[in-house]
Design a protein that fits this description.
Blueprint: H1 4-14, E1 16-19, E2 22-25, H2 37-49, E3 57-65, E4 75-84, E5 88-97, E6 100-110, H3 139-142, H4 147-154, E7 159-163, E8 178-185, H5 193-203, E9 225-229, E10 231-236, E11 246-256, E12 259-268, E13 273-285
Antiparallel strand pairs: 1-2, 2-4, 3-6, 3-10, 4-5, 5-6, 7-8, 8-11, 9-13, 10-13, 11-12, 12-13
Helix pairs in contact: 2-5
């Protein structure tokens, strides 16, 4: 039987169709303060895909996170069928809560066709089976965190992550702005390409913006650090499966003005580049209050 957390995630992404171009998605409380950005990204892509011919797969998306999502409420996804051309389709999706847009996305779809090929080679890193399983923080470290964050970090999620160069998020040291993380869904799922793309969009929001904090030696677990995704770009290059190991190769070329930019390339175990990502995020370090 499929593991419960995986089945719940699949249900989360399938959405309820209200009208031809209108969908409703539930929100999943994973322990974060607001709706996880990857959830909105994956659901918006799921909604857009349901309005496009199955033969046309998404090749790029560009999204903006406008407001924090309320985890206690469902999200409405309004799809605009912007264009259906001879080989490309474009969709615009607005995610709505409480009558206000919290997220907007444009996605482009393309029918498969032959063409020239090249790709960058993957980094030389240990294979996932040669890395230790990531069991998260131990009980002593968890106890130092707020209860809601303890629940988020202690529960088993639908994805398994094995960082090549792990770091202590409670006591991070300064290091160069790059990291590689192997990841996969913890259970096998049906061979449905659109579902795998939605799940890859969901997972692509993990680890990316965190890479921008490495040179500063700060972490999202620190109470004086405020982080949020501002936008997200993604390009799908080749077919893949999220229930097989994928390598997320992330770097950050710049951080400034309380914003950090991160880029990612996602490879399968054969070394094929299957997707690329880019994201800018808000990174605020709140100074301690002065006594007056």
């Amino acid at each position: 039987m499929m593991q419960t957390v995986v089945r719940e995630l699949l249900d989360l992404l399938r959405l309820e169709r209200l009208e031809d171009n209108l969908f409703r998605g539930q929100s999943r409380d994973i322990g974060t303060r607001y709706v996880f950005g990857g959830q909105v990204l994956g659901q918006a892509l799921s909604a857009a895909q349901q309005t496009v011919e199955a033969v046309r797969g998404v090749h790029s998306l560009h999204a903006y996170f406008l407001r924090a999502g309320d985890i206690s409420m469902p999200i409405i996804y309004d799809v605009d069928r912007t264009r259906d051309g001879g080989s490309f389709s474009v969709r615009r999706v607005t995610a709505i809560q409480k009558g206000q847009p919290i997220f907007v996305m444009a996605a482009s779809f393309h029918e498969p066709e032959p063409g020239e090929e090249h790709q960058l080679s993957p980094p030389e890193v240990p294979k996932p089976e040669d890395l230790p399983e990531n069991h998260g923080l131990d009980a002593e470290k968890l106890a130092q965190l707020p209860p809601k964050m303890q629940r988020w970090l202690s529960q088993k999620g639908p994805f398994e992550f094995r960082p090549v160069y792990p770091r202590d998020e409670l006591h991070p040291v300064k290091r160069p702005p790059y990291q590689q993380v192997w990841f996969r869904l913890i259970d096998q799922i049906p061979d449905e390409p659109s579902l795998h793309r939605s799940l890859l969009a969901y997972a692509s929001d993990f680890h990316l913006i965190g890479t921008t904090t490495f040179p500063s030696g700060i972490s999202y677990l620190q109470p004086n650090v405020q982080m949020a995704s501002l936008d997200h770009g993604m390009w799908f290059h080749r077919p893949m499966r999220v229930d097989d190991w994928l390598l997320y190769d992330c770097d950050s070329p710049s951080a400034q003005s309380a914003r950090g930019l991160a880029r990612g390339m996602i490879y399968d175990v054969r070394g094929r580049l299957v997707a690329s990502t880019a994201q800018e995020g808000l990174i605020r370090v709140i100074p301690p209050a002065t006594k007056g």
